[in-house]
Design brief:
The protein has a 5-stranded antiparallel sheet, sandwiched between helices. A hairpin with a 2-residue loop joins strand 2 and strand 3. It has a single domain (2-180), classed as 2-Layer Sandwich (Heat Shock Protein 90), CATH 3.30.565.10. It has helices at residues 2-15, 28-44, 49-72, 79-83, 110-121, 125-138, 146-156; strands at residues 18-23, 87-93, 96-106, 162-167, 172-180. Helices cover 54% and strands 22% of the residues. It is built from 7 helices and 5 strands. It is of the alpha+beta class and 181 residues long.
Length: 181
Amino acid sequence: MLGNRLYEVQKFLRDNGILISFSGRLSQGLIEEYGEAVKKYLETEERPKSEVYNVFAIYIEQTQNIKNYVSAKLGSPNYEAIGNSSIVTIGRAEDGYYICSGNMVENEDLPQLLERIDRMAGMDKAELKKLYKEAIMSEQPGETSAGLGMIEMARKASKPLEYTVTPLEGALSFFSLKAVI
């Protein structure tokens, strides 16, 4: 029965410190509404403003990255599967808050993404700041860089960004990204 399954889902969320979770197709409206809910929830816990801001900023960046990736795949035979595969969670662990997101990604897009994250994982805060400034300087007018947001997440996180890749059938894998504040 579905009711028993919901209890299992709730228990899993609670056991893993997950405070907020969303699964499904993301839209700009949903991103904004959940973002406001995240801010209000953290503010009621009387967390430092900088911590609330960093959790909110990383949540926004992760959800925007997913939404932009889905938009870029319009016309792909995998578009619907990718669009419906989004999940974002915010939780609390012993080492702070974490924001974890995931979605299906076409395998051909993984190498560049993983290389960028791996490169940043070995950088300290000063090196990340330098990389961020270089990325800003290399942008063309009117152009936005998906890499800029990833660098900003790495700068705000208290630990290197973590990811997992789960191969799926065909040309897709499930990519998940975790940032700890």
